[in-house]
Amino acid sequence: MLQFNIRGDNFEVTPAIREHIEKKVEKIERYFPEGTNATVMVNLKTINNSQTKAEVTVPMKNLVLRGEERHEDLYAAIDLIVAKLERQIRKYKTRVNRKFRDRESMSTAFAAESPASSQNYADEEEEDLTIVRTKQFDLKPMDEEEAVLQMNMLGHNFFVFTDAESNGTNIVYKRKDGTYGLIETAQE
């Protein structure tokens, strides 16, 4: 069962917007096994008063589905995100279910589709996730600013480093809007 947490930045989420989001996003619920509970987090933003940005995140146990779209029409952005999430699920469903079954003794992450609905997507090829190159490097202790400089000098869009203060493994990355992000790892 999907629960919704819908939030709007810089504008009010009207009942009509909420209803449209819930109606559209509930379509992906058919891909989950019976009894799956997930909270769908929806963030809506206006950008430059001409575009909207919509993000839909569905965190589940051991798996996160996420889609993001920018569009002049908020309703169209939601429709595009739902289509993107459905493509992600169909594309990776078999592989994810196999990994979960092997690794976690879980049944499946995604429900089996009916034969009629799976025929519609039979022509979609499952691409191979072959690793074609492996690199090894030493993680040097540094701060975030130095990591960003190193990343830019290498011409990469991400950089893995050891934080000099916490001694944790962190990642800096360049975002689509040109700003930078930091991912801090945590030990469980």
UniProtKB/TrEMBL annotation:
Self-association state and partner proteins as the record states: Interacts with 100S ribosomes.
Record organism: Planococcus chinensis
Described purpose of this protein according to its UniProt entry: Required for dimerization of active 70S ribosomes into 100S ribosomes in stationary phase; 100S ribosomes are translationally inactive and sometimes present during exponential growth.
InterPro entries per UniProt: HPF/YfiA_ribosome-assoc (IPR050574), HPF_long/plastid (IPR034694), RHF-like (IPR036567), RHF/RaiA (IPR003489), Ribosom_S30AE_C (IPR032528), Ribosom_S30AE_C_sf (IPR038416)
Family membership: Belongs to the HPF/YfiA ribosome-associated protein family. Long HPF subfamily.
UniProt-annotated location(s): Cytoplasm
Name recorded for this polypeptide: Ribosome hibernation promoting factor
NCBIfam families: yfiA
